[in-house]
Amino acid sequence: MTQSESNSKVWHVSLWVLQVALAGMFGMAGFMKATAPLEELAKNMAWVNETGGVMVRFIGISEILGAVGLIFPSLLRIQPRLTSFAAMGLFVIMLLAMMFHVMRQEMNLVPVNVILAAACIFIAWGRFVKAPISAN
Hints:
about 140 residues; 6 helices; mainly alpha
């Protein structure tokens, strides 16, 4: 195996590990926001009462779809570039979450959004530029 092939394999494995981790996190968080009773969510997320149930459900469904998009297009090799688009969509969600938390002066929540946003951008870049997956 050449150095170039070895580097490519490292990139693919690293991106897959990050994709699966983020998909799991966004999938679980999204499922919770999409299905849990709003009263239960409000106990742990004060913003739920202020945004309304429709917005909470929309965010949850968006996170679930983003999680699915991080995995299945690349895994099935059907339009694998959609993985990058899903990552960019999740980046937008995290960017909006950051702005929302700053508005509410919940600065302790912003670092998590920054880390997740950075991971999303890394996946988008990695799958577009560094280690794209070819379609069947």
